[in-house]
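Table 4 source record.
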Amino acid sequence: EIFRYYRMVPRPLRRMIHGAALKVPSKFERVSFDYKLKKFTEAETTSILEAHSSWRTIFSKQGLREILSHDLNGHTPSFTRIYDEAFVDFPRFPNEITGLLYADLKAWLIPMLPWTDNISMAHSIELRLPFLDYRLVDRALSLPQEYLFKGWELKRLMKKFLHGRLPDDVLYRPKRGTHLPLSKWLNTELKELKNHYLSDTVLNKEGLFNMEPVRRYAGEHERMEVDHTFKLWNLIMFSAWKEQNGLTL
């Protein structure tokens, strides 16, 4: 809803707003308000589809151009490819919200299910994920938009159904994540791992990256100036994947 109005703002002014957002101090918390503000104002597009897929990615188009070597720029697939494929079915949905939910289901949730299954079974845990019966999903995607969202209220229909069945302090309390404090660990317990996997000889062994911005991200994060957790962690995971599988790309 906010983006519906924000995209009416002239592009030069949106660039100024993003510049101002970048100056907001980082809290080094998982998906903090300052991160959301910077990420929301990052996309210059007025297309809700492009803005949604950009919100779900770690590196923007400009961010990718910045970190990849000059030889790779112009030869990489769309940075939102997984969402571009999910949006093919967007026109068949009656409203934007339902179409975006379906795109998240296809591009975000479905790839995660094998991961959760593999991780849980590797540790002898029997994991059950609620609300994934295909009939329930089909029904939810056929509902009018106002049944799903109203203003800032999320999970509206579920809360209405569970009202009186769960205590209000459980049903209406703020969302609490189970995320690890990676932003702080990258400067402490994981600092040695970070330095190894982001080094020129490991991450950039094949010459895929422009290391200047990578070093800048690491330095700004270590000095607690800017929270680059998501960018750094993605680069670390890619670097570790290459090294541990003996790959030369």
